[in-house]
Design goal:
The chain is an alpha+beta fold. It has one domain (3-147). Helices cover 43% and strands 19% of the residues. The protein is built from six helices and four strands. A four-stranded antiparallel beta sheet has the order 3-2-1-4. Strand 2 and strand 3 (60-66) form a beta hairpin. The longest helix is centred in the middle third of the chain and has 15 residues, at 93-107. The N and C termini lie far apart (43 Å).
Length: 157
């Protein structure tokens, strides 16, 4: 099954073309996209799709995996007892957990993920509908901008 077929299975077929446009926007076809969807039965799935150069011709090859936050990271963001997992389209502990997980994966900085999870959830996660996608570079750029202002307009190390 191709990457596009897997994405189409996880969401509505009409979203595939939008996702293809998102994929094309990745510089050199390399990078990470997070994609989530809620099916008609209410079942939700989030995938981390990483594009790496192919072995022979350098064409990007996708690695698709379910996006899951480790229990110790769920504890670190203070929501270990939240039973409902990730949520989007609503402001809830589930949307904060998703925001934390996305920031942590894209940036690799636990303190930044903790510091910005609520604001990221309000700015992005809360606004997402049934199906969504965001590039890791969008997450990084947003965090870099926030950190720039926190540091008084000067980048730290």
């Amino acid at each position: 099954m191709s990457a596009i077929q897997k994405i189409a299975v996880s969401g509505k077929t009409e979203n595939v073309m939008n996702l293809m446009r998102e994929f094309a926007a990745l510089k050199n076809g390399i990078g990470v996209i997070y994609q989530g969807g809620r099916g008609p039965d209410g079942r939700e799935a989030i995938y981390r799709i990483e594009f790496k150069p192919g072995p022979a011709d350098g064409r990007p090859e996708p690695l698709i995996e379910e996006f899951v936050l480790a229990p110790e990271e769920k504890l670190a963001c203070g929501f270990l007892s939240w039973p409902n997992g990730y949520r989007w389209g609503t402001l809830s502990p589930g949307s904060e957990i998703l925001a934390y997980a996305l920031i942590l994966d894209a940036v690799g900085d636990k303190s930044a993920a903790l510091r910005h999870r609520l604001q990221f959830a309000k700015r992005f996660v809360f606004t997402w509908g049934t199906h969504w996608a965001i590039h890791a570079h969008q997450v990084r750029n947003w965090i870099e901008q926030k950190e720039f202002y926190i540091n008084g307009g000067a980048h730290g190390n």
